[in-house]
C-alpha cells in the first residue's frame, strides 16, 4: 500500500467496495420459489415488479441482470444493423451488409398464433407493393417463445407459409426474441428502438432505414395499420406509390 499513488489507492478501495457489495448481493438473493421464475425474469418482471421478483425469484433476476450486462458489452461492439448476420430458414448465413442503402422490415412470426392468419395475409399483400421497389427487404423470424406457437421444424414452417399463404419474402431461422438466448438481431433492434421485451408474435415490426436507423411499429391490427406501415416504408425508400 505504501507505494500506491492516491489515485491508485482510491481505485483499489473502489474495487474492494464493489467486490464486497457484489458478494453481499449474491448471498442476499432469494432462491427461486416458483417454477415460472425464469420465464418471468426473461419477460422483464424483475424491472416491472421488483419487490415480488426479488423476494420470490432472486436467482433468476440475478441471472438476467448478469446477462444484460454481458449483452450491453456485446451490443457496444456492434456499429450498426449492417454489422449483423443471421441464418435464413434453410440454414444459410445472411450478411446484413447487403441491406445497406435499402429499407428492412424485421418481425417475429408463428404458425399457430391467433394472429397468424390475419398477419400473414397482410404481410403477403404488403409485400406485393414493397417487392417491386427492389429497395425493401422483409425478414420473418419464427419464434416458439410465446405459448409454444411455433413448434415445427424450419422445413415444416416453410412448407406451411408457402402452401397456405404463398409467402415469397425471406423466412429466417427460428429464434428466441426475449431473454438470454435471444437472437443478437433482436437484442440489437430492441436496444435501438428502446423496447424492453417483445410482447408476442407479430407484436412488433422493426423498420430499419437506409442508414441503419431503427423504428418500432407495435400492435398492428387491421388493413389501415398495415397500410400506414407500407406508406412509412415506401417513404423511407424514397419510392412514390402509384
From TrEMBL:
<dbReference type="InterPro" id="IPR029760">
    <property type="entry name" value="GPX_CS"/>
</dbReference>
<dbReference type="Pfam" id="PF01549">
    <property type="entry name" value="ShK"/>
</dbReference>
<dbReference type="InterPro" id="IPR003582">
    <property type="entry name" value="ShKT_dom"/>
</dbReference>
<protein>
    <recommendedName>
        <fullName>Glutathione peroxidase</fullName>
    </recommendedName>
</protein>
<dbReference type="InterPro" id="IPR000889">
    <property type="entry name" value="Glutathione_peroxidase"/>
</dbReference>
<feature type="domain" description="ShKT">
    <location>
        <begin position="28"/>
        <end position="64"/>
    </location>
</feature>
<dbReference type="Pfam" id="PF00255">
    <property type="entry name" value="GSHPx"/>
</dbReference>
<dbReference type="InterPro" id="IPR036249">
    <property type="entry name" value="Thioredoxin-like_sf"/>
</dbReference>
<feature type="signal peptide">
    <location>
        <begin position="1"/>
        <end position="28"/>
    </location>
</feature>
<dbReference type="GO" id="GO:0004601">
    <property type="term" value="F:peroxidase activity"/>
</dbReference>
<keyword id="KW-0732">Signal</keyword>
<keyword id="KW-0575">Peroxidase</keyword>
<keyword id="KW-0560">Oxidoreductase</keyword>
<dbReference type="GO" id="GO:0006979">
    <property type="term" value="P:response to oxidative stress"/>
</dbReference>
<comment type="similarity">
    <text>Belongs to the glutathione peroxidase family.</text>
</comment>
Amino acid at each position: 500500500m505504501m507505494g500506491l499513488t492516491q489515485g491508485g489507492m482510491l481505485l483499489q478501495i473502489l474495487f474492494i467496495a464493489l467486490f464486497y457489495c457484489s458478494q453481499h448481493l449474491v448471498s442476499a438473493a432469494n432462491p427461486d420459489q416458483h417454477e415460472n421464475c425464469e420465464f418471468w425474469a426473461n419477460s422483464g418482471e424483475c424491472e416491472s415488479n421488483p419487490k415480488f421478483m426479488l423476494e420470490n425469484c432472486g436467482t433468476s433476476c440475478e441471472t438476467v441482470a448478469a446477462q444484460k450486462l454481458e449483452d450491453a458489452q456485446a451490443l457496444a461492439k456492434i456499429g450498426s444493423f449492417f454489422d449483423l448476420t443471421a441464418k435464413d430458414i434453410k440454414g444459410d448465413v445472411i450478411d446484413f451488409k447487403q441491406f445497406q442503402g435499402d429499407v428492412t422490415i424485421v418481425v417475429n412470426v408463428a404458425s399457430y398464433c391467433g394472429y397468424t392468419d390475419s398477419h400473414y395475409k397482410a404481410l403477403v399483400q404488403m409485400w406485393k407493393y414493397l417487392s417491386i421497389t427492389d429497395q425493401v427487404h422483409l425478414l420473418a423470424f419464427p419464434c416458439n417463445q410465446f405459448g409454444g406457437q411455433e413448434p415445427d421444424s424450419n422445413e415444416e414452417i416453410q412448407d406451411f407459409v408457402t402452401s397456405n399463404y404463398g409467402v415469397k419474402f425471406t423466412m429466417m431461422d427460428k429464434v428466441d426474441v426475449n431473454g438470454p438466448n435471444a437472437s443478437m438481431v433482436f437484442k440489437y433492434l430492441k436496444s435501438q428502438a428502446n423496447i424492453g421485451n417483445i410482447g408476442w408474435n407479430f407484436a412488433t415490426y422493426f423498420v430499419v432505414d437506409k442508414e441503419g436507423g431503427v423504428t418500432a411499429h407495435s400492435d398492428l391490427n387491421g388493413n389501415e395499420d398495415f397500410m400506414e406501415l407500407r406508406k412509412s416504408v415506401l417513404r423511407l425508400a424514397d419510392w412514390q406509390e402509384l
